[in-house]
Structures are given as structure tokens and as C-alpha cells.
Amino acid sequence: MDNQSTSSALTRIQSLLDEFSFVEVGRLVEARSTDFNLAEKKAPSDGVVTGYGTIDGNLVYVYAQDSAVLGGSIGEMHARKIANIYSMAMKNQAPVIALVDCSGVRLEEANDSLFGLGRIYKKQTLASGQIPQITAIFGNCGGGLTVLAGLSDYVLMENTKAKAYVNAPDAVIGNKDDEIAKAAKREEFGLVDFDGTEDEVFAQIRKLVAVLPGNNTDGGVLDESTDDLNRAVLSFDTLDADEAVKQLADNGIFLETKKGYSKDVVTGFAQIGGETVAIVANKSQKLTWKGADKAARLVSFANAFDLPVISVVDVTGYCNCECTEKHMPTAAAKLAYAYSNADVPVITVVKNALGTAGLTFGSKALGADIVYAFNNSKIGVMDADQAAKVVADGDAELAKKFAEENTALAAAKRGYVDEIIDPQETRQRIAASLQMLGWKSVYRPNKKNGTV
To answer: Which residues partner with 23 through β-bridges?
Structure first.
């Protein structure tokens, strides 16, 4: 029985993995149901190719749905194959990569297909924080399949044909076309980390696998660095966030995540001294709720997979818009929780940190191990002129006094800043701190989990 020669699913797997590395698992599995004339329909491998292989020598488990077989729909045995791959991946502590092209649950199999999808959810939940889960969408990802994507750590999407939707796009009130289901919108809404051509998606997956640990016990990725740890970062205090994170990274290589979700915060991965770190940086001084949510997600992922967190903080308050007013209390709480809950090395570099918006970004109060600031950094409750207006109707002398309290020196005298540094020393200071914090150990209260 040869069902491999024309499988788009197999072709995608082979395009992604190292040449000749893929080993298929469950090739002979077929649907058990015979209702609605299913027995008469050919369903090779029940519409999903599953197995394992390598990416740059790193073990990964992968499944790919074949839209040419019953629309790539999920049936009982289809779901069982995916669940089996998750079991293998968790036993062997390696990432799972999903290549999604699926019309939904198979109606002919009724509850068997629905509860099969539920079993995949359960496996994903058990795997969360243990092994990285990467989902790439190449065709349809509708209804409950979007939950599957949402349970993944990173989601990528082909940008011309792929669609992700809870309800059919033409059923959404006020929606006149299917743009809401396409990659650009799904990136804007926060589901998708990256979109591009099929080849670009494969390339991005390979970059993720190279930079991320294979599991939560690997202790992070550590390569031999070819970049000078003592390299000066000229004018670091004036650099835009996009350029700042690249200047910190070995050889300027920064792998950005959720670029289209929120423009006020930059998040992603880099290596400093060969060690993989997660980096969060403010691009705008006014924090939006999406920016807080985006940062919290990265910090939580980094903590689960034992990656140090580097924060470059330049925030003076919350965005004063209705949307932020609606969502910021819970978003800021999640950000504060993520930093407070982190037991990995947390290093913070402060350009400006005013108010609770600045407090939530890896401050000393939330448990940051090392906080650096520049001589001209502003750190305080709020802008000095605004504070003077609130307290004494804008009194100039009072504003001057508040300005004196809003300095890095004042914060350092109270122990909220560890060291005031020259901006060009930023990279070498971070690298030295990472080495010092290499054996960090933290006691946590005995509890099942938090509730934020």
C-alpha cells in the first residue's frame, strides 16, 4: 500500500525536515467508521501523515494534514494518530510541529470525531510548558481547529491561501469578505506570530527550532559565540527598540515574535554570548493592553523553558484610549504576574520607567535580579510636571523637586536600581550578569498554580 507519492502532507514534511530524516508512524491506519458510506471513500492514512525527523539535527515530531483526503478533516483515527505523536514527543522530550490544512471535524463520524479533537486538546495541555508546540497553517483552520492553534506556543500562517476562523467568515456579522480569516488579520488579532509564503514559513520554523530548547529540562540553548561580549553599543539610550534589541544580540540576529500584534512592544529571541534569551523592549512610551499581553506571553514562555528574560524598559504611562481602558487592568495584571512568577534570570535595563506601567516591566519590586539604568533615565510615580499639577497646581519649585526624585540616582539610593551604567556598556553588562546568574535557584510556595 503506497499512499505517499502524491501526498501534499508528506511533501510539506519533507520540505521542512532534514533530507531523508523523516520516519512515518501510523501509515497503515485507516478510518473505522462505515457510516454515511465512508467505507467507499478512500482515506489513505486517514488524512494525516505523522512521524518524526530532524531539523538541523534536532529531533522533532510532526504531523501534516492532507486536504486531498476528505478535506483533511479530523476523524477518530486521524485524531488518535496525532495524540500518539504527542505521547511520543512528551516521552522523548522533543517539540511537536503541526502542519494544518483541515476542513474541520468529520461530520460523518459525529461524536467520534468531536471527542477525538478534544483528546488532542488534552494532549496539548499536558505538553504545554514541557515541549515547544509550533503550528503552521497552510489551508483551512476552522472552528475548533483554531483552539488547537491557540493552545500552541507559536503559530505561523501562509499569507495567500490559508484561513483561520471560528465561524465561517461570511457568517460573521458586519464582515463582507474573508479578510478577517486571513493571515494579516490573524496576526493583528494575536493568534499568529509570523506570516509569509510557504517557504518562508518553513524557514521561520527552522529558525525557531534552532534557537529554542527542545524541552523544559534542556536548560536553554548554548552555542559558541562568534561575537565580542565586550562590544560597545553606541548611543544605546537613543536607539529605537527594533535596533536596540539587534545591537544586544550576537551578530545582530533577533528572531521577532508577534510583530503584527502590537506595535508598542517588541518581543522575540536572541543569543547573547551564545546563550538563548527572551527579549522584551518598549517601542512606544505609552503602553497598550496588547503590548502588555504580548510581553506577558513571552515572559511566561521563557519561564516555562528556562530562558533568561532581558527587558529594555522605556515607558512613561498607559495609552489613554478606550480600548486600553477596557482591557488594561487584566492585561497589566498578567504582565506583573508573569514577571513576579519568573524564576529564571531576569535582567532589566531602564531608559524610562514611570508609574505602574514601568513597574510591571521587570522592576526590582517584581523580583528582577539585576536592574541597570542610564544616568538620564526617569524612574518614578509619574512625570514631574504632571505630579506638580496634581499636588500643587503646577508649582514650578515642586515640579523641580519631583524631577529630582524621578532620577536613576534617586532610585539607586533606595535600592530599586543596582547600577547606573554607560549606555554603550549595556551588552557587556548583560552578558556578565547572565554568567553570574547561571545557577539561580528560587524557592516557590507549595501550590498547584496561580489564577491570573
So the answer is: 52
